[in-house]
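Exercise 7. Predict the joint structure of the components listed below.
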Amino acid sequence: MKSTMMNYQLTIPAILQRAKEIHPEKQIVTKMNDESIHRYSYGEFYTRVRRLMDALQKAGIKPGDRVATFGMNHYRHLEVYFAAPSMGAVLHTLNVRLFPEQLVYIVNDAEDSIIFVDKSLSKTLSDLLSQFKKKPKFVIMDDLEAMEAAPLADAIDYEEFLKNGNDSSLPLPEVDENKASGMCYTSGTTGNPKGVVYSHRSVYLHSMSICMSDSLGVCEKETVLPVVPMFHANAWGIPFACVMTGATLVFPGKHLLGHALASLLEQEKVSIAAGVPTIWNVLYQHLKKNSYDLSKLHTMIVGGSAAPLSMIEGFKKDFGIQILHAWGMTELSPVGTVCRLRTTMKDWNESEKMHFLAKQGPAVAGVELRGIDDQGRDIPKDGKTPGELIVRGPWVTVEYYGNPSQESFTEDGWFKTGDVVTIDEHSYIQITDRKKDLIKTRGEWISSVEMESQVLKASGVLEAAVVAKPDEIRGEVPVVFVVPKEGESIDKKSVLGVLKENFANWQLPNLEDIQVIDVIPKTSVGKFDKKVLRTRF
Ligand code: AMP
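Solution:
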């Protein structure tokens, strides 16, 4: 029997239109390069997006063309986020931390027609100009007043570009919900980066999902600060969800550390902030030594890498702030799981609760997940047996852009994440490793993530990364890299002592394999670059 429901198209222009109709007075705030605060309303945002859509059209951008961005989190970047897909073009966020050869590959693979770039980052692109096959146009997103000559020849200033476009009172164009609205490339540590193409429908559904209070809980009453960059995995979809709901949106610009970030959280009375563990680790150290009124900040969303238990406990105990642990991937738009405790867990003791909050949580509504072993059989939900996480859902990719290989998918179409998990009886997952980062000692697996979280308990340790080293007798042994906190030192024996409490003797690293270093090399998206670490022995 056919349903009687309308085939209403779930599109980004529909999100934009809602902002204009329902909450035009709500605010979008940006900390600018010179630390001044720029503020305007969603109503003004809408008008500028309409002008930008027209300006893009006049610059020759047609539906389906790729409109790239290369910038930090600020209101102009948000305008491009909405203008490009609302006129049928495809928003392509380029990761500003990519290595030059990857950047060239991605710009050429996506065939970007125009690139909106922050002036401070434009030198990176100008150095690569001769290698871009389809000569893109450039628009510089910083303020005109703040501009010295940009190193990109023929680049136009954003506000000048906007002047070419007219505002329009006509309805927004109708777009097919299944058409491409945006694309991102994965930061794969091996081989070329792979493109993922989102649709209007997938973005719309993902936005609704992360607005659920059991998920990230983005809603009108919240003031949301995404530290997670707009150039990586759509800033976890937060910009779209905020425009959909009218949440006050606060952008940190390039001010991501210490005092600048803490004072923005305080001044703008931010209630939800989102970022990777390394950002919150630095903030935590800063807050321990300096005093701010963060009484409005109730939730810090952490994802991208595992949130250590010590961090979750520290923020709760010292500042009363809840860490909300989420897992996702570029291939999932990106949110797949969010860890909140259920009402049925309310009588658990504190330590049990904390232990659970350090897991990545159950699948959000809309995503299905399973764990499978090497033979493709489902692993038991016992919280112990590891298996590869596979997922499916309306905002999970079914293929990579221009890449017919199906090796990342099961025969029945589930996406193989490459993450190793356990799943417990409550359906909460815990990521124990990336498949390729597990350490096999005497035929048994050691989770590098588990060892890292234990090492963090040792005195003076700021960051820890564990990788496998080949060993004639044990097969592989763990090598532990540790970075000391500012002004502190690390005693290797005390690191070993902490590990002895949680690991069997045969799992322990040798004392000489505990290495104190100044900094752990990071990938373009701020994760520990274990490939580089492995080259150090
Ligand atoms: P990306 O596509 O660059 O965002 O990277 C996705 C990968 O980051 C996942 O496959 C995981 O390996 C890792 N990841 C994301 N969130 C978490 C988390 N909460 N805990 C552990 N690993 C995570």
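Discussion. The mean pLDDT is 94.
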